[in-house]
Automatic annotation (TrEMBL):
GO molecular function: biliverdin reductase [NAD(P)H] activity; riboflavin reductase (NADPH) activity
Domain NAD(P)-binding: from-to ranges: 7-198
Protein name: NAD(P)H-binding protein
Native source organism of the sequence: Streptomyces bathyalis
Gene3D superfamilies (alphabetical): NAD(P)-binding Rossmann-like Domain
Domain of life: Bacteria
InterPro entries: NAD(P)-bd_dom, NAD(P)-bd_dom_sf, Polyketide_Oxido-like
Amino acid sequence: MKLAVFGGTGRTGHHLIQQALDAGHDVTAVVRDPARLEIRHERLGVEQRNVFDPDAIAAVVDGADAVVTSLGKTSRQQPHVLRDGTRSIVAAMKATGTRRLVAVSNSVHTAEAGDSAGRRLVQRLLRLPLRVPLADVSDMEKEVEASGLDWTILRPARMKDGPRTGHYRLAVGEHVPGGWSIVRGDVADAILQVLDDERVIGTFVGQAT
């Protein structure tokens, strides 16, 4: 499979690229600073592009079997990184006829019908101090859902640094009950698992240990 990865220099993206290469995929990493990507491989291409410019990234997504987005953090100085970056990626995919999109989100920004009282309490407590990044995550998901593409949103629990363990749970259309954390290596593993799973197109997938 040919993958275009946005956010490959991040902590989750690094795991994703390495695991994708180990699985035999061809990967193109779209980055701001190529020097930050330490992985070298004959099946890895690195493209320095502005993610906010659809024309600049169209050539990268053209011909890809799937696009994965794991974009960087939102800040008060840049409060719409996820929304605007995703909007640009969606536009480039539409322009080139690229269909499959997997977007990494989180499980904190919104409540679902099956969420426990404890999870809802945590969400309320985090809503004020994290209102800017959580709003950007929510807006990013709206861009994905309205895209008309073959999309899947992965909502991992609180991500921690760590290699793949393979010991985690996925829940289609709901958050994982009692799941509060997940290592980044397992987030990368889940991304690769859902890429060609038609059952999760058009919905979100919760993930936690």
